[in-house]
Batch of 4 targets.
Target 1
Amino acid sequence: MIDPKPATGRTPQRRFGGTVAQIRSALGFYKVMAYATGSMLLLLCVEMVLRYGFGKFIFAGGSDAFTGKPFAFGFADADPAGVVGGFNVSITILIVHGWMYVLYLISNFRLWSLMRWPFLRFILMALGGVVPFLSFIVERRMHAEVERELVAHPDAGQRY
């Protein structure tokens, strides 16, 4: 029979999933993606209000569908189409936010795995990209938590 080790009264040593330099790099990438994704989400919310609340798209270029005059930049009717040709900025906002959210999730996963946090924290970080203003709040809290843990456990980074 194996006897359990006696309790020493010490808490187990904290270990990170990487070096301090890797964690700081992941933290920087996370911060950039949190602000970029949060900003794009706010822009997306404005676009959705314009589209579903007022029936407008944001267009650049093209020509007015009713008069044939050149259209520079502004709001155009979504249905029926108010602009022929041109660049639909509204659709671009949707696509860019979608791909930025994918990069945001990658930055979340990288930081979460290096810090070896519980899975619930990853879910909270991921929600930052879909709830307006939450990415800014969560980023600030996660940044402070990482800094606090790095100071509290200076030897927790793995050595290679």
Target 2
Amino acid sequence: MSIYVGNLSYEVTSDDLNEVFAEYGTVSRVQVPMDRETGRMRGFAFVEMASEAEEAAAIAALDGAEWMGRDLKVNKAKPREDNKRSSGGGGWGDKDRSSRRY
């Protein structure tokens, strides 16, 4: 299981998150997604802890807490869903070109 941490300051680092979540148990992994174009963090992260009990304690303590001037959104991460943009489907450019009239 993974914890979603949202509404983060753009100044937050994985070390910052590791330090805060370590108060509730052993942090196994911290993932801070970065924007491809700007190289800046995207305002959310994922934290994995050693046990579900530690994750539950961290969620209970940190959801809604103020940190670095922002109210955190902390909950269980939902499984990643494939969307049409990432799978290449959909969009006006994907139609069969042979049926178009110009």
Target 3
Amino acid sequence: MNKIEHIGIAVKDLEKSNTLFASLFGQAHYKIEEVLTEGVKTSFFKSGPNKIELLEATNAESPIAKFIAKKGEGIHHIAFAVDDIVSEIKRLKKEGFIILNETPKKGADNKLVAFLHPKSTNGVLIELCQEID
């Protein structure tokens, strides 16, 4: 794992949250993107070298909708940049981590993504991200 790629924050209202985080960072988001397969609309902010991804559910069955119903708004996941997501999945599986999707899928911000189950990472949902060439 190379670095923290971004921190994902589940929000109820993306428009209101964009206003809040624009005030916090002193600049507007740089991208809004919908990921239909996950039932989520995302918004990305930069703060120095760091990125924050806001996530709003687009339907009641979305993992984000379920997360908010259970835990409320807040930090949803920490994403790590990797060079080779397939190799990293194999390595982590061998180490005993529970992989939620062993086949990487297209995520937001031009990334291939895979997730580690929080049960195997002290309650933290971990996302692996590899830039799509």
Target 4
Amino acid sequence: MRLNRSSDHALRLMMYLAANPEQRHTIADIAAHYAISRMHLMKIAHQLSLHGWVESSRGKGGGLQLAHPAHTILIGQLLRQTEADCQLVECMGPESSCVLQGCCKLTGVLYGALQAFFAYLDRYTLADLVNDDGLQRMLQPQNKGQ
């Protein structure tokens, strides 16, 4: 299983905001920090805002910040919303055309594995991900990732 690029970038954005909670941050600054597309990050930030993960404001002094304290944001919950397609195999989807559907146990086994994956991620918060002095230094705005 591999997370989609949007989920990866959403996690990076959220980690950046969690490491710097005292101020608002622009999409341009975060995109430059990670050397990722500003337009792609803008779409991700918009989705995170719609789902209530981040607060966004425009104008002078505007930018992004976490909508909730980092210690309350579960990684599994965040990824459930950013991963558009968690179907590990075609037969897990609503439009399955598998001839084994209804008698194959693979779907149930994989569904259980997926639930265990998310349950494991739910043991960790965003604060857990950024609770490291070295990482904190790397995520500071003036550092630009160096």
